[in-house]
């Protein structure tokens, strides 16, 4: 992502959070970035496209954070469970756009692409948390897992609202083990009473069809997008043109090697290390490095 494009995205997320999606205009965002409205349209053709860019950025960030927790071999299953709850709470609290529900002022309109995208994000998170709860409490919860997901979601959402909107002095470090313990109590009660589920697989079929992406699926879908962002950022770097040409060649080599049936891991890592030498490119290089380290064989 270019330096200016990143500035636009950060400004838009803040304004959408503070004012709401409908109340924020493209002109507001352009003024906040100190650029002309026409300059903003060079990066995003509409406010809708800009909002979807923010959602995609944050969704990718969440996937990578949760993957790191899964890879933490030092954590017990219980510690991993609490850590995953904490990471979700911290993520949503950091990106208040998803807590204050800036898109919630109206129902999606005809030809609106944001409504379906939000539904898909929510559905994937529910599926993720369903498997999280089943991993923690066992397959015996499977039949009641959708009910348990709703309980977890409702509890987390209300606590976050109290923190983000009402300013209650609560921390995610306190909330995450507390919520985990309350889920222990709720699940124990559900299983002990042998209740029938309110939300059956049939009722939740539409949600269940939006399964969470694997890291491999995410990498495959997003790699070209990340390379495009690297390329646009290179164009704005304050470095000599000779250095820009070198970096552009590195990007081209990355593309070529990534298209090989069996890409060479050592070469991909070396190319990414070269990109990471530029501070503005480092976040993208580290993102791709994680994909390479986890998905490409030595």
Automatic annotation (TrEMBL):
DNA-binding region coordinates: 25-44
Pfam families assigned: TetR_N (PF00440)
HTH tetR-type domain residues: 2-62
InterPro entries associated with the record: DNA-bd_HTH_TetR-type_CS, Homeodomain-like_sf, HTH-type_Tx_Regulator, HTH_TetR
GO MF entries: DNA binding
Domain of life: Bacteria
Name of the protein this chain belongs to: TetR/AcrR family transcriptional regulator
Entry keyword annotation includes Magnesium: no
Entry keyword set: DNA-binding
